[in-house]
Amino acid sequence: MPAGVLERWPFYCQPCERMMRLDGTSRLTFLDHNLVERLNHILTSPNASLMPHVLAVQLGIDYSSGLAIIALLASEGLCKPRIVIYHICEPDLPMSARDLTLGLPILPWRCPNCENWVESYDDLSFDIEARLLDSVELA
């Protein structure tokens, strides 16, 4: 792995030629044949970034269904989910991200952008982002 890659891209993985097959339609009953085909197109790129609201727009589903897709992939070890943290100083710009298993940041939390200490979760907002670890095909 090239020097410095992990510091800049914590989800870097070596290119791979394998495709993981997953029976998702029995577990995500909202997925019809058309949605599976469109989703498979998205899931073919290892290291692709997935966010529930982006999946919702791309597939014409709701946010919770996009989140369910990421949860299924994470439960199978096919993606690395993390919490994206936003602060009121720049509400549309992610300030930080942390592994989902670590939970929300412990307060007080220092914003890396404005360098203010955050004392309340009311000043933060969160989203989920995941990186695919392999190419995935839903069956």
SSE layout:
Blueprint: H1 5-8, E1 19-22, H2 33-42, E2 49-50, H3 52-59, H4 63-75, E3 79-87, E4 94-99, E5 109-110, E6 117-118, E7 124-132, E8 135-138
Parallel strand pairs: 1-8
Antiparallel strand pairs: 2-7, 3-4, 3-7, 5-6
Helix pairs in contact: 3-4
**Per CATH, what is the topology of the largest domain?**
Arc Repressor Mutant, subunit A
Compute the number of helices. Answer: 4
CATH architecture of the largest domain: Orthogonal Bundle
Helix content: 25-40%
- Give the N-to-C terminal Cα separation: 33 Å
| CA gyration radius, whole angstroms | 17 Å
Q: How many distinct folded domains?
A: 2
What is the number of strand segments?
8
Oligomeric state of the chains present here: single chain
Low-confidence stretches are: 1-17
Class from secondary-structure proportions: alpha+beta
Question: Could you describe the 3D structure shown?
Answer:
The chain has 2 domains: 20-81 and 129-138, Arc Repressor Mutant, subunit A (Orthogonal Bundle), CATH 1.10.10; 82-128. The protein is 25% helix and 27% strand. The protein contains 4 helices and 8 strands. The chain has helices spanning 5-8, 33-42, 52-59, 63-75; strands at residues 19-22, 49-50, 79-87, 94-99, 109-110, 117-118, 124-132, 135-138. A hairpin with a 6-residue loop joins strand 3 (79-87) and strand 4 (94-99). The radius of gyration is 17 Å and the shape is elongated. The chain starts with a helix and ends with a strand.
